[in-house]
């Protein structure tokens, strides 16, 4: 994989772990995620418009619209599942399980659909991903969050595959802006129409359950910046390398959950699983 793509993905992985920690530690994860998407999109819009004008108003191929539409739908489901998982589960379990399963599925999609091949070292990485995901899922307190965490992994693998194609239909940064603009509308519709058992009750402003706006602003900037870097990497590198390497910061997210959020039950399993996932992801990305 090109060195530039590797650097972009590693930076994106750190930003991703940071905004996930912010969302998890907020009072209401789904509402914090929605606010992060709205604010991140609002901050990015003037830059996207300026870049579009200065770049000669670039466009897309005909396949861009269906791809971005599918990706937006997958992203909205992903964000809803993320809110559900973080409402009932620990960061140090949800993040490794979701990201480990996503990396594994991403590699399998790259092999089965895109015809990409894995070297022996990469096959060892697949084994570590499987072992790490299972280890992170062991702690009993995480059982009710495992289903949404695995759903997150499926959604990540699916939209990453779609975006690998979409990022090559035009400027990757403009494609990313379209994703977040569409996702902002989709999340607004979910919060307005979905039942309370999915979105949770509206928190009282200023209460402990209210995520506020300051923290989601930072999370939103990290979210948009990080995924724009991923899209840029997908435009120049194979999916089987980009998808796994995104999970290299898994151990940082798990460590934050254990050390800063007090998620001590089954901490050894969670940290060990996260370390295996990170190692497996790196082997998948660089072992070819």
Distinctive features:
about 290 residues; mainly alpha
Task: Please describe the topology of this protein.
Layout: H1 3-24, H2 29-54, H3 64-88, H4 91-112, H5 120-136, H6 143-166, H7 172-193, H8 196-199, H9 214-236, H10 239-245, H11 250-259, H12 267-286
Number of helices: 12
Radius of gyration: 18 Å
Q: Residue share in helices?
A: over 70%
Helix/strand/pairing category: mainly alpha
Report mean pLDDT, rounded to a whole number: 86
Say what oligomer this is: single chain
Q: The biggest beta sheet, please? A: none
Report on the architecture of this protein.
- With 288 residues, the chain is an all-alpha fold.
- The chain has one domain (3-286).
- Helix content is 77%, strand content 0%.
- The protein contains 12 helices and no strands.
- Helix 4 packs antiparallel against helix 5.
- It is globular, with a radius of gyration of 18 Å.
- The termini are close together.
- The relative contact order is 0.25.
Brief sketch in words of this structure:
This protein has 288 residues and is mainly alpha-helical. Helices cover 77% and strands 0% of the residues. It has one domain (3-286).
């Amino acid at each position: 994989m090109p060195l530039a793509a590797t650097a972009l993905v590693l930076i994106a992985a750190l930003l991703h772990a940071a905004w996930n920690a912010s969302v998890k530690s907020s009072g209401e994860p789904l509402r914090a995620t929605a606010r992060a998407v709205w604010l991140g999109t609002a901050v990015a819009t003037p830059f996207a418009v300026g870049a579009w004008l200065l770049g000669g108003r670039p466009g897309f191929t005909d396949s861009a619209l269906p791809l971005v539409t599918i990706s937006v739908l997958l992203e909205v489901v992903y964000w809803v599942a993320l809110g559900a998982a973080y409402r009932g589960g620990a960061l140090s379990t949800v993040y490794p399980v979701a990201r480990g399963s996503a990396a594994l599925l991403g590699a399998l999609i790259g092999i089965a659909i895109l015809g990409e091949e894995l070297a022996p070292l990469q096959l060892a990485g697949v084994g570590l991903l499987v072992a790490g995901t299972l280890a992170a899922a062991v702690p009993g307190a995480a059982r009710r969050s495992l289903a949404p965490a695995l759903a997150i992994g499926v959604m990540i693998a699916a939209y990453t595959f779609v975006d690998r194609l979409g990022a090559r239909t035009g400027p990757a940064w403009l494609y990313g802006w379209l994703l977040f603009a569409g996702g902002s509308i989709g999340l607004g519709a979910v919060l307005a129409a979905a039942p309370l058992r999915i979105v949770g009750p509206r928190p009282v402003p200023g209460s402990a359950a209210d995520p506020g706006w300051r923290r989601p602003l930072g999370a939103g900037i990290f979210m948009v910046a990080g995924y724009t870097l991923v899209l840029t990497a997908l435009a120049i590198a194979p999916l089987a390398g980009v998808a796994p390497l995104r999970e290299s910061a898994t151990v940082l997210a798990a460590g934050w959950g254990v050390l800063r959020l007090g998620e001590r039950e089954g901490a050894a399993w969670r940290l060990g699983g996260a370390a295996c996932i990170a190692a497996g992801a790196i082997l998948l990305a660089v072992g070819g």
